[in-house]
Predict the structure.
Amino acid sequence: MLTMKDIVREGHASLRTVAEDVSLPPTDEEKTLLQDMLEFLKNSQDDNIACEYDLRPGVGLAAPQLGINKRMAAVHFEDFKGKHYSYGLINPRIVSHSVEKAYLSGGEGCLSVDRNVEGYVPRYARITVKATDIDGNDLKLRLRDYAAIVFQHEIDHLNGVMFYDHIHNDNPFHIPENAKAIE
Ligand SMILES: O=CN(O)CCNC(=O)c1cccc(Cl)c1Cl
Ligand code: NI
């Protein structure tokens, strides 16, 4: 099982590298990795397991956070309306997005960042993502609000972008133009 020791931290080149496309169909090793990433997220959200193995909670994880520069990520979370999202994503890409922006009023965190970085992270409020799932099927997801934010955080990792790269330098709590707060 994956634990925190498998996650690279700030300063590791992998976090600032543009990851490579995965050739399809994914190899068994790549499928197993995605399954392990999903299992990590579920474990990290289970109080008993997280406590037992000292896991920080996460709703997403990208392969570069494991030092693997492949365009793969996993997400596992429930949005504020109770809709469940649990995906292993291969070559996820944003194919369209809203002009309107959104940000989490509580800011963001990252398992590869061992410190609290305060501030609003402006992102697109709505996005359409295309990807291949763990079984090799094409995915097209229309996402908004919290789900859109999480997917953008993960796709950023595939492009060597960290969440705090988006925070306003002079005033971290500057309300971005045309942006809505997600509580
Ligand atoms: O890349 C993934 N991580 O670093 C996992 C830890 N961070 C989170 O779960 C997290 C927390 C707050 C907002 C967002 Cl958008 C995310 Cl993603
Ligand atoms: Ni992260």
